[in-house]
Amino acid sequence: MAFKERVFSGVQPTGNLHLGNYLGAITKFVALQERYDCIYCVVDMHAITVWQDPAELPRATREVTAAFLACGINPKKHIIFNQSQVAEHAELAWVFNCIARIGWLNRMTQFKEKAGKDRENASVGLYVYPNLMAADILAYRATHVPVGEDQKQHLELSRDVAQKFNNDYADSIHSHGYGEAFFPLPEPIIQGPATRVMSLRDGSKKMSKSEPSDYSRINLTDDADTIAQKVRKAKTDPEPLPGEEKGLTSRPEAENLVGIYAALQGTSKAQVLGEFGGAQFSTFKGALVDLAVAKLGPLAAEMKKLTQDPVYIDSVLAEGSARAQAIAAETMKAVKDIVGFIRH
Ligand code: ATP
Ligand code: MG
Question: Cβ(140)–Cβ(3) under 8 Å?
Fold first, then answer.
């Protein structure tokens, strides 16, 4: 069966947005607007799977919304909203809690990393996070999901949930007139030279909002001096840059900076090395600072302007939530019928 093509993705309001979120996710969100109907969500319910200060969460939610807008997502043509305003996400997640298997969740590396050593003390929400993510996507029966490389495993779980729902309820789906399958199997969109931007301090760890060291990341709100300082301090090795991509093997820090440069410039790593092969890091870092400041500076200014108008931001979220809810409510009605819940 052919499903209507639709894009869904989300960003957590867990702290400072950084270059990884921008290059791995938000720039993709922007580009996909041309070809698809898109729904972009500030996933505040995901955020509270680890402790969030209730005095801080609204600011972070508005900041992610401001970033979506500043980067060029059109909230009239597409939908921007925050997750907690559409109750169907939680409702569908419950059904999926009963579809997904404990064994599937036990394999999730994000839970292992975020729970750390004291797994017994992690929230149950952190454990079932992937089921809520499946619900986010499938509440809209979305077909395409732009994400960074780190979310690939969760996307696979979303597909498994959709598939198992379609199988377990096949007869009911058919008898309610939904044909062979009710949910599409959502496709991840993970492309380009910066699908996994690494920490500037440690080329083996991904750049994260929740990493304590601010020097590990470039925040979207950093000013030019801060960006320059962080890039200059970024870990590298003593060799000059290679002329070809295979020369980046086993040089994670070099590969990371080259990937960042390529993504910011909209080219490939090979092209960047064509230009900078043989150069010392001091030269390359100087060029990277100039490029990053040129690309991120106007964004930061626009985000700052937008966040000074929380009434406008909240109106975007309210309007987006109402439009999202209209779609999700239809899905949820159908799911109730398929599962066998009485409704009036
Ligand atoms: P947290 O540490 O709280 O999980 P995060 O930095 O991982 O924060 P998320 O809100 O979880 O940010 O992810 C938002 C989007 O950004 C997702 O699509 C995710 O795959 C992408 N993303 C996150 N970090 C990176 C990164 N280092 N490189 C590329 N994409 C990333
Ligand atoms: Mg994350």
Answer: no
